[in-house]
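From the pipeline queue, job 12 of 40. The input is one protein chain; the requested action is below.

Action: predict structure.
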Amino acid sequence: MPDVLFVAPDLHGGVGRCVAFIADALPQRGVPASLFLLRSRNREYPIANPRVTRALPVLESPSALRLRLPLAFARLVAQIRRDKPAVVCSHGLLCNMLVVLAKKVLRGQFATVAFEHSSPAIHYGASRMRRLKCWLVSQTYRRHDAVVGVSRGVKEDLVSMFPPLRGKVRTIYNGVPLEDVREQSSAWPAPLPAAGDVTQPYHVVAVGRLEAVKDYATLIDAAALLDDPGIRFTILGEGSEHAALQKRIDAHASRSPVTLAGHVDNPFPMIAGAGAFALTSLRESFGNVLVEALCLGVPVISTDCPHGPAEILDSGRYGLLVPVGDAAALAAAVRRLADDGEMRERLAAQGPERADAFSLERHCQDVIALFQPLLRRRAS
């Protein structure tokens, strides 16, 4: 019988990675845990924990998931009734809502913890269903025993938008398995030239879904402004914006080339071999990939978007922050790093130590400390 049941939409994207990490890590630390997923996805993050239930087959369409949600909910209730976990920890608005409904159906036989991975003010505020989503948060989150924001900004948004949550919300940063990242970074037998090799172009790498929220258009515009054959850019990832971004690259014809390299199962060798890592998002509630670049000793440039990057980089102490959507500022930051060897060395040296603050080990300690009173309550 697991002590903790994690509930998540799937093992895809940033939330999926975080859930996979913690569901694997807790049993190794003496806390039995299982995982319930609403659906399967293509290219899921791997997980070693054998206690994984997928309620639905592979569904890539959100509308297809909505149509089959009653079946997924029924299977969630059945699993909770059968396994009798002491704590059910859900991730994301949809799962946070379903767990509250399951608790009502099962007459509150377990404690619940809701993780919020999105900035409510930004993410829900920009949605066409803003009023509905805000109402759902207000009605469901207050019924959880605890609520977690993955950054201080997310926590502050929750409290400011939903005052009854004050005193119930805490911040627990995402955890990154730093040693695994370092190990995977050495898997490529032919690493890219080091940043200090003046015979090679200064290489800037970005990793993420090719979607509007990642704003790679600004990175492409920055490359056009630089127009320097001594600087090149590579973007790893796939998504609906691929064709539009490639068209933008072709239209600019910059001497600072931008390559859309597609999906790579292991991006860490390329990140480790880069002169800089760039994040250009319009919003990032946390930003796991920034921590991964820091732990590999790669200087980081990021937009100062809400909310995670500034917290990870300590307001610019551990990397360069630029305004959202400002191609000129991004180009200037790339130029500054490319030209300033002392700055590169300082940021590269500081990065691994800063990454330690967001390790999976520290995340597990914080999560276990949150769960322990709830587990003791069940035991008594």
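Job complete. Confidence is low (pLDDT under 50) at residues 189-198.
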